[in-house]
Amino acid sequence: AQAAGCFSENQFREACAELQEWGPGGANWELLVTTLGFRVYRRRYQQTGLYEYKVFGVLDDCPPDLFAAVYMDLDYRKQWDPYVKEIQEKRCSGETVVYWQVKYPFPMSNRDFVYIREHQELDVEGQKIHVVLAQSTSVPQFPERSGVVRVTQYKQRLAVQSDGKKGSK
C-alpha cells in the first residue's frame, strides 16, 4: 500500500536500478571518501547550494532482512544512535509520519525532520530487494519548534539486497 499516493511503483524501481548500477550514475558526482568498504559520493545543487549524497557498500555479517528491520525500528535507533534527541512515528491524516530531532554541537542548533516513509520488498529477477523511500512533509501535529532548525527538503532512497553470501549490499 502506498502512503497516500506519495511514492509510486516507479520510484521504488528506480532505487532498485541504482543498486544494480553500483555507482552514482549521472553527472557531477564527486567521490568524497572511501572507507571500510564504503564509497560516499556527493553532488551539489546549484539552485540551493545543498548537497545530495549517495553511499555504496557491503555489510559482511548483516543479512538484508535484519538490516531492513533495524533500519525501520525507530525505538531501537534511540539505543544505538547517540545523535537522536527525539524520534517518533505518528499516524496523521492516514499516513505514517516520522518526527526526528538530531543533536548538533554548540553553538549550532539542533535539526529536525518531519517526513513520510515507506518500506517495500521487491522481487527483481528473483532477488529480494528492500527499498525504503522517505520525503519531507508538513503536518500540524509536528509544528516547528523554537531553537530547532527544520529541514524541509529531506528525501531518501535506500535499497538493500544480499551480497550473495551472508551480508547486505
From TrEMBL:
Gene3D superfamilies: 3.30.530.20. SUPFAM superfamilies: Bet v1-like. PROSITE patterns: START (PS50848). Keywords: Acetylation, Cytoplasm, Lipid transport, Lipid-binding, Phosphoprotein, Transport. SMART domains: START. One of its GO terms (molecular function) is phosphatidylcholine binding. It holds the Pfam family START. GO terms for cellular component: cytosol. InterPro entries: START-like_dom_sf, START_lipid-bd_dom, START_lipid_transfer. Residues 29-169 form the START domain. It comes from the Eukaryota. It is found in: Cytoplasm. The keyword Phosphoprotein applies. PANTHER family: PHOSPHATIDYLCHOLINE TRANSFER PROTEIN. Interacts with ACOT13/THEM2. This is Phosphatidylcholine transfer protein.
